[in-house]
Amino acid sequence: MLALVTGAAGFIGSTLVDQLLSDGWDVRGVDRFTAYYEEEAKRSNVAESVASSRFHLIEADLLHAELTNLLHGVDVVFHLAAQPGVRLSWSDGFALYNELNVNVTQRLLEGCRDHPTIRRVIYASSSSIYGNSSSFPTREDSPTRPHSPYGVTKYAGELLCRAYHDNFAVPTISLRYFTVYGPRQRPDMAIHRMIESARTGREFPLFGDGSNVRDFTYVGDVARANIAAASADVSAGAVINIAGGSSTTVSDLISLVGETVGSPVNVSRRLAQAGDVQRTGGDISAARDLLGWQPIVTLAQGVSAQVAWHATRDA
Q1: Which member of 4, 43, 142, 283 has the greatest number of CB atoms within 10 A?
Q2: Of the candidates 238, 222, 118, 206, which has an alpha carbon nearest to the alpha carbon of residue 170?
Q3: Exposed, middle or buried, 313 (CB in 10 Å: 0-12/13-18/19+)?
Q4: Is 97 a catalytic residue?
Q5: Which residue among the candidates 150, 155, 164, 218 is catalytic per the annotation?
């Protein structure tokens, strides 16, 4: 089986690449190496994978890359490439989010349309598409009302997947991730910054009063969900929540990180930011029933694994 993984050098993408290789897949990875965070960190993510004869890393911009050869022979496409983050998606930043999250997705789907041998296209969506949901745990049929431009672009990607499925039978599945964390987490993400604060004493800016609730999902569990979606007997066009079942307040998470590191997080309180929702929590009944998937890593176990990863970066 040959997989194409877009965003292959990123946090989730590189973890998926590792799991695919471990499971015996051949993997073609593509990454633009955008300047969202340090290129060195991304190259470190795939340093071991590039040594494998079953992994081929292509440095390309999917906005302009020639897709025929990129998709040739591919059985499953895992589309994880995107511009992440809520706060930078406002104002002038939106143009880049629209370009990398919407235009790239549409262009890739056009390419898949021309390759009918592709068995599955798995799109990395986000719980951000729900916005401030009124029901928890949130089901896939709950209203979609993104609370940020970032969420709007991820939902647009879902709608494109649905349109290409309905019109051209492109076999898409959209997985809605809920707050992914774990080793290789991007440096702008909360748990990464909390751990570094506890390790170094630098300030961790807490936006709001810490009562926000997030459903945290371990990155290894997300990789398993993607692979399950590649082979499960699921109707194309489906959308499925991938949530960790580890809902907790940001304040409690700060305490857990401090306990795990062995020193407290140096919290600096700030005003709440536009685009931040009060609560997330996903119903994973569909993932369990359709994919045979459920999370296996608890929040305490996952935070411990991420803390250990941070320590290896000092070596």
Answers
A1: 4
A2: 118
A3: exposed
A4: no
A5: 150
Q: Which two tokens stand for residue 299?
A: 């929040």
Per-residue tokens: 71: 């998709």
Q: Kindly report, residue by residue over 31-66, the tens digit of the pLDDT.
A: 999 888 888 999 999 999 999 999 999 999 999 999
- The answer to whether residue 315 scores a pLDDT higher than 80 is no
Tokens of 245: 């079942």
Cβ-contact 149, 90 below 8 angstroms: yes
Is the CB of residue 39 less than 8 Å from the CB of residue 33? yes
**Residue 124, strand partner residues:** 175
63 and 83 in contact (C-beta within 8 Å)? no
Report pTM.
0.96
**Angle (CA) 183 179 278, round 5°:** 140
pLDDT tens, position by position, 164-207? 999 999 999 999 999 999 999 999 999 999 999 999 999 999 99
In the numeric block, which tokens belong to residue 128? 């951000």
DSSP codes joined into one string, the chain: -EEEEETTTSHHHHHHHHHHHHTT-EEEEEE---TTS-HHHHHHHTTTGGGSTTEEEEE--TTTS-HHHHHTT-SEEEE------SGGGSGGGHHHHIIIIIIHHHHHHHHHHT-TT--EEEEEEEGGGG-S-SSSSBPTTSPP--SSHHHHHHHHHHHHHHHHHHHH---EEEEEE--EESTT--TTSHHHHHHHHHHH--EEEEESSS--EEEEEEHHHHHHHHHHHHHS---TTEEEEE--SEEEEHHHHHHHHHHHHTS--EEEEE---TT--SB--B--HHIIIII-------HHHHHHHHHHHHHHTT-
- Residues 174 and 161: beta-carbon distance below 8 Å: yes
Q: Alpha-carbon torsion 148, 149, 151, 156, what sign?
A: positive
Angle at 273 between CA 94 and CA 100, to 5 degrees: 20
Greatest alpha-carbon pair distance for the chain in Å reads 55
